Amino acid sequence: MNHSALERRCATLSKRRSIKKDWQAAWLLKSLRCMDLTTLSSDDTPQRVRRLCAKARQPLRPELIESLGVKELNLRVGAVCVYHAYVKTAVEALKNTGIPVAAVSTGFPHGLNPMPRRIEEIKDSVTAGAEEIDIVITRAYVFAGDWQALYDEISAFRKACGAAHLKTILGTGELGTFRNVAKASLVCMMAGADYIKTSTGKESVNATLPVSLVMIRMIREYLEITGSYVGFKPAGGIRSAKQSLEWLILMKEELGREWLEPQLFRFGASGLLTDIERQLEHFVTGRYSAAHRQPET
């Protein structure tokens, strides 16, 4: 992996593409649709999860939707992501909306629970109604170069998920090198992951464009070899609308139009929606509102 070339490629993205006016608004609406609206705080409550689900059902204020003329799009986020303890709460709050619930599992965020307990946790989340499972890999296997053990672990998680989608969290900020990220990405895809995901959002370094580029190139290589489509999910630290555009540009240029849909691309985000709503309001009114004026999630 050529570190300098990866960083140079990412640094040119926003300079080569400048998205303004109507096109910027359209891309921001795309960001909204590809968002896993998330709450993973130690002080989460059922009430907070219900508020998050209400925001997922109505991500933009009705008057803003009317001004943008996008009522017929039936805008909604890609999924709602919560701890296992709140899966049932979220499923009930999103009933009949078609919005899936994603549960973080396998000893999130460190992934160090005993293997039988991690398998049990996945099965419990699926039984509770989760349609997507975000699991944490054992980073020690990567550091030791024990790729067979990592493959066996992900395969067991894939089997436990059943019909639910499996997203594998690499914890890229802790893997040390781009080479480790690339190898771990390929092993996860070979073992049956539906998405590969950068981070838990709890590491000191989370999603970055260069590490995302490495993972995206592995997705492209895997597609060329196997014909299998695998999704990508950057998570952690993506809080501004401008950042979301950078990732969308990266996906479009590296993988093509297909990867701009929630079936193959998601943002893991908690604060991103607020800034997207502010930017869309500026597009409509020409004025920025304070973040605290936006409805709470």
Automatic annotation (TrEMBL):
Keywords: Lyase, Schiff base. SUPFAM superfamilies: Aldolase (SSF51569). One of its GO terms (cellular component) is cytoplasm. Transmembrane segments: none annotated. It catalyses: 2-deoxy-D-ribose 5-phosphate = D-glyceraldehyde 3-phosphate + acetaldehyde. GO terms for biological process: carbohydrate catabolic process; deoxyribonucleotide catabolic process. The keyword 4Fe-4S does not apply. Pathway: Carbohydrate degradation; 2-deoxy-D-ribose 1-phosphate degradation; D-glyceraldehyde 3-phosphate and acetaldehyde from 2-deoxy-alpha-D-ribose 1-phosphate: step 2/2. Belongs to the DeoC/FbaB aldolase family. DeoC type 2 subfamily. This is deoxyribose-phosphate aldolase. It comes from marine metagenome. The lineage of its organism: unclassified sequences, metagenomes, ecological metagenomes.
